[in-house]
Amino acid sequence: MALNLRSSNIDRLRLSSLLDGISYLVLLGIAMPLKYMADMPMAVRIVGSLHGLFFLALCLFLLIALLRKQLTFGWCAFVFLCALVPFAPFWLDHRLKEKKA
Length: 101
Fold this sequence. Notes:
The protein has about 100 residues and is mainly α. It has 4 helices and no strands. Helix 1 packs antiparallel against helix 2 (about 40-65) and helix 2 packs antiparallel against helix 3.
């Protein structure tokens, strides 16, 4: 199922969750080792900034979904907690896709 970013807030939430999850893994798996093993702190600054932007977008879409009553508070809290755990956003995407259908 393709993402319908123009009309579906849940799809925008799914995309922001996936981007946040990917940037989190890049931050932890690539940028942090570059900072501490190769003395390249700029990697963390760049990837960390992108990750922060994607995380803020995720929070914005969560708030919109909550205010439009597309997700309950419990679901929003669950999505937020999944953003803090590596690899969880990819599992969450499947759950949100089922919820939308």
